[in-house]
């Protein structure tokens, strides 16, 4: 194919080299500069009155904007105070609720522990009484056995004589 003499066909490429006159854009510095500059709004267009007629600019808008911003900040501050008060109430109610729940749990646990101890004590007493009765019965049976053996020996001796 023969060359047509054109250099760039299609989209032009981006330049990789920066123009030294332009400099680089620093977003951080730009935001700092914006934050540091005071807010000034000036109107160059006339203000319209109630009837829609234009009237010339009547006063400093800077003060109006400042007042509006001040009012907004005061409302925002009041909202923050309300939110903090609500948070404190919530925290207090939560802590009171947790304390109450802990007291109820401790009370139930103490009651159950007392009932368990009483049940164990009653069971131990019944078990001890059963063992004592069993021991008494065994002694009585042994005594009867001895008496029976003596009686059988005496009857055997009397039959032999």
From TrEMBL:
InterPro entries: XLR/SYCP3, XLR/SYCP3/FAM9_dom
Chain segments carrying region Disordered: 1-35
An example Gene Ontology biological process: meiotic cell cycle
Annotated Gene Ontology cellular component terms: synaptonemal complex
Pfam family name, one: Cor1
Domain XLR/SYCP3/FAM9: 86-149
Family recorded in the similarity comment: Belongs to the XLR/SYCP3 family.
Protein name: Synaptonemal complex protein 3-like
């Amino acid at each position: 194919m023969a060359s047509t003499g054109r250099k760039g066909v299609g989209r032009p490429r981006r330049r990789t080299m920066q123009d030294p006159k332009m400099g680089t854009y620093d977003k951080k510095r730009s935001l700092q500069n914006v934050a540091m500059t005071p807010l000034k709004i000036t109107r160059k267009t006339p203000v319209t009155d109630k009837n829609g007629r234009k009237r010339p600019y009547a006063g400093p808008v800077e003060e109006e904007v400042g007042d509006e911003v001040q009012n907004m900040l005061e409302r925002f501050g009041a909202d923050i105070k309300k939110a903090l008060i609500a948070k404190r109430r919530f925290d207090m109610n939560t802590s009171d609720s947790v304390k109450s729940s802990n007291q109820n749990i401790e009370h139930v646990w103490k009651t159950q522990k007392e009932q368990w101890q009483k049940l164990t004590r009653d069971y131990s007493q019944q078990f001890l009484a059963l063992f004592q009765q069993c021991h008494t019965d065994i002694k009585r049976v042994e005594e009867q056995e001895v008496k029976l053996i003596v009686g059988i020996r005496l009857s055997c001796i009397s039959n032999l004589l």
